[in-house]
Design a protein that fits this description.
single chain, 462 residues, alpha/beta, Spore Coat Polysaccharide Biosynthesis Protein SpsA, Chain A, UDP N-Acetylglucosamine Acyltransferase, domain 1, 8 helices, 38 strands, elongated, binds uridine-diphosphate-N-acetylglucosamine, binds calcium ion
Length: 462
């Protein structure tokens, strides 16, 4: 059976009190609308239509994809009016699944079950019983409040005190035979508390047409919670993070505190990985067997191999090029690894060391206060405290090549392009602008001079 999907995303989101359109607010690093779209894409629909309106250009630019079409809703006169704008883009045959752009955690299995319940001939609503149903549309049934026949949905604003006590709410997700949907949309009116065209009024129209109305239930409340305010957004973020944390722990990852973890992308962990409190993972991060991430690390687009230890307050951002930390390497505390930092096995990067677009071979060490940019560093190199590669001449970046087993003393400036031969030693405080030969000591600083007859000035007494 042919399936079309409509995602409503035109509303302003007044209760967010933000200049950003509501559906672009982020949950776990992805916009609310992107979450809904990603879920929708798992359903093999013949068409996905997103209804945009408030901040339409910004919203469309943020989520544009080849298989997605937009319908503009200008002005925004309610959810029914929103779907009216999408209607001409829907196929006449088949089923339409309607999703709310502000209900981000909807799961594929739940949507499938709803489409099945619709079966091309019924109106199927996704509902849930909430302990606190306030703000939501209530599902009104005849007789039995749970098993009775569905008669309609009443919006919170329009509900009587008795109706407000109903705990079964509409989640904003429905599956409808498309031909019937088009007919009902044309019959919607706006004589209600909000003066809007409510999509939820199609339920009463279905009842009047003697089309069966059925409800399926979401298995988990977080799946269907909507985001209308910063409080609800933060609440949903924590629930989602907890879900991710539980999945990691079930796979054996040891989290010091599942409530103090943030994953804004994809985190893939091997066996016996330990993660201390308050770490943030963004983009794609892979952590190998037995690796340990200490507290307060921010790690984005990085691969950390088995047995590596990342000490507290380390910041890694691989951007597009990625960061790689080799097996059993030690990094931090307070280290900064930038795009293209590629650390070999057992490399040590210590406090206040920045590495960008540089390869360090096995066993190389830069333990204190240093900068390595656009460098190739050989095995077992010891790179002294306060030393830097001067890789940028104001217009171009140049490379520094350091052979294996080189010892760079403290406070050196290696002016690139430059090569340091294997086994060389560079004296502390050297500013080196030409290559240093292998195996020799190279010192590039003024010699110390001692003046035997010099007298220190003394203050004159008055
Ligand atoms: C809606 C439902 C309510 C349900 C709740 C679940 C209606 C009338 N009410 O209420 O029964 O319990 O969702 O979360 O449908 N939108 C547009 N154009 C508009 C208005 C809204 O595209 O003119 C979009 C919004 O961007 C949002 C979605 O529709 O993504 C829902 O709108 P919102 O105003 O949040 O509806 P609720 O009051 O939450
Ligand atoms: Ca809402």
């Amino acid at each position: 059976m042919a399936l079309d999907i409509v995602i409503m995303a035109a509303g302003k989101g007044t209760r967010m009190k933000s200049a950003l359109p509501k559906v672009l607010h982020r949950l776990a690093g992805r916009s609310l609308l992107q979450h809904v779209l990603d879920a929708a894409r798992t359903l093999e629909a013949q068409r996905i239509v997103a209804v945009t309106g408030h901040g339409a250009e910004q919203v469309e630019a943020a989520v544009a994809a080849p298989n997605l079409v937009f319908a503009r809703q200008q002005p925004q006169l309610g959810t029914g009016h929103a779907v009216q704008q999408a209607a001409p883009l829907l196929h006449d045959e088949g089923t339409t699944l309607i999703l709310n752009g502000d209900v981000p955690l909807i799961e594929a299995g739940t949507m499938r079950a709803l489409v099945q319940a619709c079966d091309g001939r019924r109106l199927a609503l996704l509902t849930i019983v909430l302990p606190d149903p306030s703000g939501y549309g209530r599902v009104v049934r005849s007789g039995d409040p749970v098993g009775g026949t569905i008669e309609g949905i009443v919006e919170h604003k329009d509900a009587s005190p008795a109706q407000r006590r109903i705990q079964e709410v509409y989640t904003g997700v429905m599956a409808v035979p498309t031909a019937l949907l088009k007919r009902w949309l044309a019959a919607l009116r706006n004589d209600n508390a909000a003066g809007e065209y409510y999509l939820t009024d199609v339920v009463a129209l279905a009842v009047a047409d003697q089309v069966p109305v059925v409800a399926t239930h979401a298995h988990d409340e977080s799946e269907v919670l909507g985001v209308n305010s910063p409080v609800q957004l933060a609440d949903l973020e924590r629930r989602y993070q907890r879900r991710l944390a539980d999945t990691l722990m079930e796979a054996g990852v040891r989290l010091a505190d599942p409530a103090r973890l943030d994953i804004r992308g994809e985190l893939v962990c091997g066996q016996d990985v330990e993660i201390d409190i308050d770490c943030v993972f963004e983009g794609r991060v892979e952590i190998g067997d037995g690796a340990r991430i200490s507290s307060h690390c921010v790690i984005r687009n990085a691969r950390i191999d088995a047995g590596a230890v990342i000490h507290p307050f380390t910041h890694m951002d691989g951007e597009a090029a990625g960061v790689h930390v080799g097996a059993r390497a030690l990094v931090g505390p307070f280290a900064r690894l930038r795009p293209g930092a590629d650390l070999g096995e057992e490399v040590h990067i210590g406090n206040f060391v920045e590495v960008k677009n540089s390869t360090l071979a096995r066993g190389a060490k830069a333990n204190h206060l240093a900068y390595l940019g656009d460098a190739t560093v050989g095995e077992r190199v010891n790179y002294g405290a306060g030393s830097i590669t001067a890789n940028y001449d104001g217009a171009n970046k140049h490379r520094t090549e350091i052979g294996e087993n080189v010892h760079v003393g403290s406070n050196c400036v290696l002016v690139a392009p430059i090569r340091i031969g294997a086994g060389a030693t560079i004296g502390a405080g050297s500013t080196l602008s030409k290559d240093a030969p292998a195996g020799q000591l190279t010192v590039a600083r003024a010699r110390a001079v001692s003046l035997a007859g010099w007298v220190r000035p003394v203050k004159q007494k008055k």
